[in-house]
Amino acid sequence: MLYPLSSAHIHNGMKLSELAIGQSATVTAVHVPAALRERLRMLNVAEGGKICLLRRAPFGGGLLLEAAGVRLALRDTLAARIEVRFLGEETCG
Amino acid sequence: MRLILVGNPNCGKSTLYNALTGAHAKTGNWHGVTVGESAHRADLNGLSAEIRDLPGVYSLRSYSMEEKVACRAIEEGEYDLAVCIADALTLPRSLSLVREVVRRGRPAALVVTMRDLLEKRGGSLDVQGLSARLGIPVFALSAHRRADIVRLRAFLRDTAERSGAMAETAGIPAGRMGAWDRSAAALLEGVYLPGRENSALADRLFYDPKFALPLFAFILLAVFFLAFAEGMPGILCKDALEGLLADGAGGRLAAMAEGAGAPVAADFLRSFFGSVGMILSFLPQIVLLEFALAMLEESGLLSAVAFLTDGIFRRAGLTGRAAFSLLMGFGCTAAAILTTRGLENKPLQRRVIAILSYISCGAKMPVYLTVASAFFPHPFAAVVALYAAGVLFAFAAALLLRRLIPGEEEFVLELAHPQRPRLRPVLRSLLFSAKQFIIKVATVVTAFLIALWFFLSFNFTLHYVGADSGESMLALACRAFSFLFYPMGVTQWQVALAALSGIVAKESVAGTLALFYGEQLSAAFTPASAVAFLIFILTCSPCVSAVAAAAREVGARRALGMAAAQTGIAFLLSYLVYGLLCAGALAASLLALALPVLLFCLRKRDHEKIRRSKKSKSERVHRRDIRARLVCPRAPAARAGRPRQRRAHGKKRHARRGRRSRLLYDPARGSGALLRHRLSG
Question: Residue A91: which pLDDT band, with cuts at 50, 70 and 90?
């Protein structure tokens, strides 16, 4: 079970789950188990990578992200453990 | 010459594999279609090679279950050339897997697929430049163009021969290896342009919940309507085919046998063609369902559905990925069980396999239709209701199993690019599955029916007693356990036998019923017992091949346990349904009386909870339970008290763990022990 990060853990920026649709951000830290972190790294979600939030799923589901050409779905509990630095409102395609 | 196909999930390995070898590996536009390895011989312009298709992997530091298969094959397998496959749209990411393969020191080549998509986006790839930079042969193609496949054969042949010639040196010369130390972006600088991803209309619509979910529901309903509704192509084709086989072929052959003076043979031929024809006649409807599933898979809508429904699946303790397996379950449960290998972890896989039996597979459809069309004025509505009931059962079971097989899950899924489904691969896989169905009916089901007919028509002294006689071997054996079916209103041993035959293959349930009753099912069932029987078929354990597939995934003992539990629950449910249908008024009034009592017992008592903390763990106890002496909470551990109290009671301070270590506090030395200890030491 991954518990959401408390505010004490967030050193710079915000959680990925706090982004609004259409906003982009840079990943600053990924607080997940090693295997999952490796998987996320292969999907271009790693420290220093730029991501963009495209959509949110209905029924309290996940987030639809775009990271350097890869589109991925991520459950929001996981997104709450990824720290990002807000980049801007730019629309991502 | 042995080749293996290595690449990220959904980059088109199985599509290339099928194109090169003519095999029928399952393909689809979502991640994790291939879950096991398969091998096939291929002719590469005169060079005979064995090509092995592996599940997709992101990296050799594997994550999920099916990836481990591929990693083992790459690390330890015997092969002469590793053909790395990368999709042109995510080439930078794919290079890190290529790098890991090349570092293993085995000969490798890179094949880049989806070239047409890259060009459509305005991107470009300089194949010669990339090859020079990576030090391995590179080839780019669009897998759906035949000319490209022909060129790929030539390319693979050349590469394989060249790597075979320099097998001793194996792979890239050590001096060239340095290029791989650079990052993917640096490697691709100047030779690769990703192009601009202009989100197409399909993209936006597929991931819009307001559009995609209704579209998905509409597609499912439309398929059911076309297949099962009166006067629609599914039913029309079925009737035509049945007439052709049962009355045409069977009737004529039986008449010939009778003319030749062999009434037993005529009897056999008539009942045999009746039941086999009956099963085969479901082919059009099964093909229609499979066609819809294949189109859904090819278009990439499934991947969108997985994303959009994750929120629902999450409530039941599953992930959106389970949507793939559950939808495959409408085709064949055994095949769907294989796809569960792509799920995140073992407990989750166990739960999905357990609930898959409630998703009605294509083989249960004939049973539903045979029974429903005999008892309901609108069989279409009945069949749809049964399918929907199955899905609801599956969710209820998932909720229950979440308690029994705990295990947390996380959901990360790469999403497929929507594409226009190509008809050729869809039709090819459709023809293949139709062929498989006919083969299954012609072998397993036919053999079963012949054996059945034999045991039914002869008694223990091997005298012919006729198919409907109660004297035959099987009739006597089946009476022994037909009492299990009495509470669901079924008193005939023939029905018990039909239900039992479902263990071999679900198609044979319908076949056996047709063998005994033909179209006159009202002799076997009352409407209420027919519904109960349908519920039994819906919820009982899947056929042998599905149980065997489950045994491979979760172990034989667990698989058998699941099957037994499912069958037990199926009996109980069908008893319940029959009871409710027969004594509905009685049950309703009983329920009306019992409901207030139940509500009183189940009433929420949250506000009455008291919590006591024991270290960080808190116990939750109801005050009422304490008052009723149901629980006896332990008294809180006595504190050592404050210094003044200690002095008043003449007590010494107790060194407790967790507050101070022995080093810091020594009862003999009193407070400040460490400091004094250090000073003195």
Answer: low
In total, the C-beta contacts within 8 angstroms joining chain A to chain B are: 103
pLDDT of residue B354: 92
* Separation of alpha carbons B307 and A56, rounded Å: 9
Using a CB–CB cutoff of 8 Å, tell me whether A77 touches chain B. yes
What letters, b where the CB count within 10 A reaches 16 and e where it falls short, cover B527-548? ebbbbbbbbbbbbbbbbebbbe
Contact residues, chain A, for B198 at CB < 8 Å = 93
Complete domains list, chain B, with CATH = 2-193 (3.40.50.300), 213-582 (no CATH), 608-633 (no CATH)
A6-58: CATH topology is SH3 type barrels. (2.30.30)
Task: Taking the CA atoms of B488, B490, B493 and B496 in sequence, report the sign of the dihedral they define.
Answer: negative
Cβ(B367)–Cβ(B506) under 8 Å?
A: yes
Identify the DSSP state of B415: P
SS3 B116: helix
Per-residue pLDDT reduced to its tens digit, B465-483: 665 566 777 777 788 778 8
Average pLDDT of the segment spanning A37-58? 86
pLDDT tens-digit profile of B286-299? 888 888 888 888 88
With a threshold of 0.90, tell me whether the complex ipTM lies above it.
no
> What is the H or E stretch that residue B50 is in?
strand B47-53
Q: Which residues of chain B have pLDDT under 70?
A: 62-65, 165-179, 197-200, 461, 465-470, 603-624, 626-641, 652-681
Q: Residue A28: in which H helix or E strand, if any?
A: strand A24-30
| 3-state secondary structure (DSSP) of residue B621 | strand
Closest CA to A30 of A70, A77, A83: A83
Q: Which pLDDT score, from 0 to 100, does residue B202 have?
A: 74
Q: What angle do CA B667, B673, B678 make, to 5 degrees?
A: 140
- Which pair of tokens denotes residue B264? 């037993």
What's the confidence (pLDDT) of residue B657?
A: 46
Helix (H) or strand (E) holding B592, with range, is: helix B584-602
- Residues 403-442, chain B, touching A (beta carbon < 8 A): 408, 410-415, 417
H/E stretch holding A86: strand A82-88
**Quick one: tokens of B62?**
């594997």
Q: Are strands A82-88 and A14-15 parallel, antiparallel or unpaired?
A: antiparallel
Contact indicator for B310, B303 with CB cutoff of 8 Å: no
Partner B contacted by A56 (CB < 8 A): no
